[in-house]
UniProtKB/TrEMBL annotation:
One of the Pfam families matching this protein, by short name: SBP_bac_1
Keyword Cell membrane: yes
Keyword match Transmembrane: no
Signal peptide residue numbers: 1-23
Name this polypeptide is given: Sugar ABC transporter substrate-binding protein
UniProtKB keywords: Cell membrane, Lipoprotein, Membrane, Palmitate, Signal
Alphabetical list of PANTHER family matching this protein: ARABINOSE-BINDING PROTEIN-RELATED, POLYGALACTURONAN_RHAMNOGALACTURONAN-BINDING PROTEIN YTCQ
Length: 445
């Protein structure tokens, strides 16, 4: 991602938005974590760290650490997913002066928590010493002008999952470009299958495609935020999917991994899906699918963009009220970079792609019977994880922005184009920024 200073973040009128982000909460009762003294490590006594997350069976991961670190124990507490109530719970705890030592926070939500002084700058505890252990793009998502505001926990590099018997029936290899994908979609429809879905009610999927094409919708300049959702890359992607949907080459009747999707995939009505690394576990729920699925690289835009994109991605963030931030950081780094931590996260919690620079997990280093004996993680996802757009930056009202764009996309059914919806969303998002006291202007090339 581009270099963004905390001074820029806070100097862009962002302090005024804090109350809006804490909807339903009072302002956190903490002073800025940037001016508080570094809290020394605990010595000579046993401490217990609390970790709020929506990962399943996270305590089993913590227990591996606990067995090796009797003086620093970790207690995992399950909370709902971020926008399903988890973030509200965290914000409320911060406002009350409490909360856990560590919380699962999506990468796209880090700026929101920074703006309410909810996160510890881990650079004060030696976080930079661990940077080389992590994928550089993911480390960039949590780093701001020398500060480090979370530890990457997992991500979701993208690839193309497909049922190879259907492609063999058509007589086509996996597409390497999006133009080839469109040609294959036409042939798939003739064979009675859809090549994919396009969820018009979830704009985050469109953002995934735009990210791959090289878009960077918002960034922070010296005088505030700069917005550009009508760049060439975004409009080309929007026009592409406008034509695909208009020609009924994908279905918009249901989304991926819904009951209708699983039924269609099982009977050959869905031939493929563009999905993140974590989609493999979901695809294995397709009845009779073993040996029918394979994985190929995500199709690319030949004249622009990157080899892959990413969907999802979380962090282990140390919250401002933690009394043991150094120990919390040490646990988070162990969990996300050590072989035993990564293997435990995969086995018990089903995490997405490991953020570690040099270890993907032992379970992901061998062929898969379900995916036709293919060693797809090493063959496809390792290269995909290194082919990301490093300039994409998340912004303080990401979810609200996606809601605005999704509302526009739903009007596709009544004749409004995706291109029109993107243009309108840029205007609406700009107004929301200004209504919240944020300085924003149209970016210039």
């Amino acid at each position: 991602m581009g270099a963004i200073t905390r001074r820029q973040l806070l100097g862009a009128g962002l302090g005024a938005v804090a109350a809006g982000m804490l909807a339903g909460c009072s302002t956190p009762g903490t002073t800025s974590v940037n001016v508080e003294p570094t809290i020394p490590p605990a010595t000579g006594k046993r401490i217990t760290l609390t970790y709020w997350a929506w990962l399943k069976d996270l305590q089993k991961v913590a227990d591996v650490w606990n067995a090796q670190n009797p003086d620093v124990q970790v207690e995992a507490v399950w909370i709902p997913g971020g926008n399903a109530g988890g973030y509200q719970k965290i914000y409320s705890a911060l406002a009350a002066g409490g909360g856990p030592d560590i919380a699962q926070v999506e990468m796209r939500s880090i700026p929101e928590f920074m703006l309410v002084n909810g996160l510890v700058d881990l650079s004060r505890y030696g976080a930079a010493d661990h940077a080389a252990k992590f994928d550089p793009t993911l480390w960039g998502q949590v780093s701001f002008d020398g500060g480090v505001y979370a530890i990457p926990q997992d991500s979701g590099p993208m690839a193309w999952y497909y049922q190879h018997p259907i492609l063999e029936q058509i007589g086509s290899p996996p597409p390497t470009t999006w133009s080839e994908w469109r040609e294959l979609a036409v042939e798939a429809r003739a064979a009675g299958a859809y090549l994919d879905t396009f969820p018009i009610g979830d704009a985050s999927v469109f953002a995934m495609y735009a990210t791959q094409a090289g878009a960077s919708w918002l960034r922070v300049g010296e005088d505030g935020w700069e917005i550009d959702m009508t760049d060439d890359a975004t409009l080309e992607v929007a026009d592409f999917w406008d034509r695909v949907v208009d020609d009924e080459l994908v279905t918009t009747a249901y989304g991926n991994f819904t009951p209708a999707w699983f039924a269609a995939a099982a009977d050959g009505g869905i031939a493929a899906v563009t999905g993140a690394s974590w989609a493999d576990a979901l695809i294995q729920g397709v009845a009779g699918g073993e040996g029918r699925w394979r994985v190929a690289p995500m199709p690319v835009w030949p004249d622009m963009g990157y080899g892959s994109s990413y969907q999802g991605g979380s962090t282990a963030a140390v919250l401002a009220n933690s009394r043991h931030p150094k120990e919390a950081m040490d646990f988070a780094v162990w969990m996300t970079t050590s072989p035993e931590g990564i293997d435990a996260m995969i086995e018990h919690s089903g995490i997405g792609w490991s953020p570690a620079a040099d270890y993907i997990g032992s379970q992901r280093q061998r062929p898969s019977d379900f995916f036709s004996g293919q060693n797809y993680n090493e063959e496809v996802f390792v290269p995909a994880s290194k082919a990301q757009n490093p300039d994409w930056v998340w912004w303080p009202i990401t979810q609200q922005s996606f809601n605005i764009l999704s509302d526009g996309f739903r009007r596709k059914a009544s004749g409004q184009s995706l291109v029109e919806s993107v243009r309108q969303a840029e205007e609406q998002i700009t107004r929301v920024f200004r209504n919240k006291g944020l300085r924003i202007r149209k970016a210039t090339s």
